[in-house]
């Protein structure tokens, strides 16, 4: 731990309102207990302190606050944390954990700018186990990230058990799958459910993605009857995109899609199903639209809200569909039209949020098709100013995806994720007017010793004067 004195606002993401009271402070020690109603017992446990009815740290629900909002008051005698829901209290607990054990006095009133704050892990190009995903979730929650998008399928692999379609994982997750054949494995239904439950205990919603109609070579290797001519297809372990496609004119396609989406919907308590839709360079435009016209309504029939990469804006979208913008261009007419028609947008421009981009020319991992992504570039932009026609009211949130073509280990995931994810987390949580790069880099510096102590091999970017 650093010996520097922490001030009340030394938190990432920066809270909406901070009012320090000089002179007052509260120290958490071995005798400090937490009092919480039964509805907050599970949240209180994240503080790692004993429970007691007269605890000096008091948690409570307050329905005058928004669902993710919290109010934290620190005096010399007590710490009072109120939240609009258990989730709001949990975010307040994260703030306390970042500040503690020497808590500066004052009041923090906080709530997020956007409800959807997310990162994505690509399990298809390189598989990560349930335990590895859970460890990743532990590192996201402190930054108030509340969604984890799992890219479960792609040309190089299929990473979720689907009953009735055993070859998807027998072949699509076997030895030699993944980019360079270096990432076999899949989640059983029980493992997926375990990840979802673990995430939910940390107020993180899992957003499963089954990518279609493109990015399906692994499907065709497993089930050649789904190809246009029914002929066997060779497995692919290179990193090309845009060459495979489900066949829009074949009825078998839709039986497959329904079965898969039904399985995923039944297993997923969260409200979203992501159906991909990106980079369908080998799907004729009319086939792409015909396919999506049949597939976009399916999640709704299973009680889910559909998300797709922004290419889906070329099709007629269900009213509640969400479009995820990922490109680097300064404008996109189809996305602007979708926003004007009331569709919500997740903002993930590759040149600001893609965690698989190199930090700079010397970065040993990652890609650079969207340029280099420094910590400052990941921080110093505004989602509502990114796309003409896609203003604040159209934006549901921000996601930082991590594609795994060049990743081979959890250390690789962490190297690219930290410290850029905290930058994107602040973009998604903190009020626009409160954000400031100088302040951010000073607050970020304090995480160096903490990540080190936790064995997290983050990138020691020279942009930060690490403690
Ligand atoms: C584009 S962005 C892709 C992925 C690649 C990624 C690499 C998007 C929706 N598709 O297939 O993995 O670039 O950065």
Automatic annotation (TrEMBL):
Its EC number(s): 3.2.1.52
Q: Which Pfam families match?
A: Glyco_hydro_20, Glyco_hydro_20b
Keywords of this entry: Glycosidase, Hydrolase
Which intervals hold domain Beta-hexosaminidase bacterial type N-terminal? 10-110
- Write down the InterPro entries for this protein, in alphabetical order: Beta_hexosaminidase_sua/sub (IPR025705), GH (IPR017853), Glyco_hydro_20_cat (IPR015883), Hex-like_dom2 (IPR029018), HEX_bac_N (IPR015882)
Which enzyme class, named as a word?
Answer: hydrolase
Q: Which residues form the Glycoside hydrolase family 20 catalytic domain?
A: 114-431
What reaction does this enzyme carry out catalytically? Hydrolysis of terminal non-reducing N-acetyl-D-hexosamine residues in N-acetyl-beta-D-hexosaminides
Q: Which family does it belong to?
A: Belongs to the glycosyl hydrolase 20 family.
- This chain belongs to which protein, by name? beta-N-acetylhexosaminidase
Q: What is the lineage of its organism?
A: Bacteria, Bacillati, Actinomycetota, Actinomycetes, Micromonosporales
